[in-house]
Amino acid sequence: MEQGGLRDAASLGEITPQVLRATFPDWRIFLSSTTWWAVRGGFQEFDGPRSLLHCTLTSADLTVLADKLCAQDYLGKLSDAELEQAWRDMLAAGLR
User: Fold this and answer.
1) Using one digit for the tens of pLDDT, what is the confidence trace for 44-58?
2) How many domains does the chain have?
3) What global pTM score does this model have?
4) Which domain holds residue 21?
5) Is the per-residue pLDDT at 71 higher than 70?
6) Partner of 49 for a Cys bridge, out of 10, 22, 36, 87, CB 3.0 to 4.6 A?
7) CA distance 47 to 19
């Protein structure tokens, strides 16, 4: 899906598990009980800039999960220097 496509679908109320799976093929997206999950392979770092990159996301709402997936997609495309700057900005804002 091209840039903005997921946002356009969200504005039309068309966020479905199938749309998310097609848009984010590296993630396994599923519903367990009342929680939506998105899981991908890799290792989770718990400190430093790479701690912004998660392997597991959860949400009770599929649209919120879509937002989290978009954020992870954006962060994953940053260079190491850009990711470090994002992490420093987050620390400076007191978000961690």
Assistant:
1) 999 999 999 999 999
2) 1
3) 0.83
4) 5-92
5) yes
6) 87
7) 32
